[in-house]
Amino acid sequence: MEKKNDYRISFFKPTTAFSKINRNLVIILVIIWAVAIFGFQILLKVTGKPTPENSLITFEKVWSNIKDGNASPEEKIEFADAVLSVLGKSSIMAKPQKKETLNNAFSWIVYDMIAEEEKEHFKAEISAFEQLKANITTLEDNDYINVKESIIEKVAPILHLENHSLKAKLIPLELRADEMEIFTTENINNIHGIMKLYLTHNQSFLTDTIVFGFPFHYFYTAILLLVLFVILCWVYCYKIDKVHTKMGTYDKKKK
User: Fold this and answer.
1) Exposure b/e, 163-187, CB count within 10 A at least 16 = b
2) Within the chain, where are the H helices?
3) CA distance linking residue 144 with residue 133, whole number of Å
4) Rounded distance, CA 147 to CA 128, Å?
5) What residues are paired with 203 via a beta bridge?
6) What are the DSSP calls for 118-144, one per residue?
């Protein structure tokens, strides 16, 4: 019997000269792309040095006195500001247990700085705000806005913050009425690790070098890799066009 032609195509086991050239070219370009992506990440890791943010340095400076109950008013303010710096990071939202620890720390230190005669009213105001926040259907709710602004006006000056600053706007959202009076032992034991995790970043010449107003690592991943991808696509098309012409797969149009 006459053997039928086998039209199955395998990228990894090409059967024609053209498909072998195509396979090799694709593999080379993919390797270049992979090295550009993962090689750069490895380089970032190798050259990076763990560097603490100023907020972590401040936290570690005052933490011992805060924990022992010997902190000065200035140290309490610095502690609250450092904790608020982490609470303002979007990444902490994905870790509810860690966020609860920081909420406890922030609520406790703010409550501690409130004047004794105002503590009961302040706690009730925070509780009322939490209920409003849970039940509102729009952020334009007047009662919600009024209570929020009242809390900011009361706490922001204590923390030496401008009422319109981003940190000040976080204050009402991060206070918890039921966590004000006690900073739990578990949270005391966990907070240093949490602060160190979110306030330490790897830095190197790749992150410190500025290109067109952007850190180089950002410029590289957000812009240069896109440009490289387009160039690799052009190289593939150009090379394959040359192969087609050389092997006579098609003829270029005559002028």
Assistant:
1) eeeebbbbbbebbbbebbeebeeeb
2) 17-34, 40-47, 54-68, 73-87, 96-113, 119-135, 142-155, 166-174, 185-198, 205-208, 216-219, 225-247
3) 7
4) 8
5) 49
6) GHHHHHHHHHHHHHHHHH-S-TT-HHH
Count of Cβ atoms closer than 10 Å to residue 128 Cβ: 14
pLDDT tens sequence across 126-149: 999 999 999 988 888 999 999 999
Contact 195, 67 (CB under 8 A): no
- Asked whether the CA dihedral 133, 95, 123, 81 is positive or negative, the reply is negative
Look-up of token digits 């550009």: 36
Q: Please state the domain extents for the chain.
A: 17-48+205-247, 51-201
Query: In whole angstroms, how large is the CA radius of gyration of the chain?
Result: 30
Tell me how far apart the alpha carbons of residues 99 and 132 are, in angstroms, rounded to a whole number. 21
What mean pLDDT is predicted for residues 15-37?
A: 91
Interatomic CA distance for residues 32 and 228, integer angstroms: 10
DSSP per-residue string spanning 70-83:
---HHHHHHHHHHH
pLDDT of residue 127: 96
The pLDDT score that the predictor gives to residue 19 is 84
Distance CA 54, CA 11 (A): 53
The helix/strand/coil state of 3 is coil
pLDDT, residue 14, reads 78
Kindly tell me the burial class for residue 78, based on how many C-beta atoms sit within 10 Å of its own C-beta (0-12, 13-18, 19 or more).
buried
Average pLDDT over residues 150-171: 96
